[in-house]
Design goal:
With about 180 residues, the chain is an alpha/beta fold. The protein contains seven helices and six strands. It has a six-stranded parallel beta sheet with strand order 1-6-5-2-3-4, sandwiched between helices. Helix 3 links the parallel strand 3 and strand 4. The two termini are about 30 Å apart. Bound molecules: magnesium ion.
Length: about 180
Amino acid sequence: MLEPRLWVSSLCQLDFEALAARGIAYYCLDVDNTLARQDDWKPYPGVVEHLGQARRKGHLRDACLISNVIFGPRRLARLRHLGRLLGIEHVYGALFWDRKPGPRAFRWALARMGSEPGSTAMVGDQLYTDILGGNRLGLFTVLVDPLGEDHWTTRLLGRRRRQNRLLSQMGITRVTGG
Ligand SMILES: [Mg+2]
């Protein structure tokens, strides 16, 4: 359940065309450390262009941002702001009771995009939220390496360390290069 279908070094290394060939054209995207650094109000360099290109070529038909937010209208404002910059109108700020890996945000995303699990991917940097949640609903899950430092709660839980250990046990290989 924790194993991603694909592991790439970053979203910009994700081959949207190859996934489209497998029938995947809808995307649930994690925000922090996947599209932008934790707390950054602008997407990581290259992300806007890479998504834009996939969209223009028809490999990405619709996308949705799903982020666990801990309190705060400011966090939600940031999400919407990033959504605007990325041209993504569906934005889900999951609060404590419906946070990933819970199914609610994923179900909402599928309904908003009008997509089926079989044609939808979940892209994120954390096994215990993004990948687990996506796998449970039968989405095609893609793990990316984090863009920067983790949120203090992630550090506190020692999640990254456990994740790295787990990844090496799984014996899967990260796809690098274009
Ligand atoms: Mg993240």
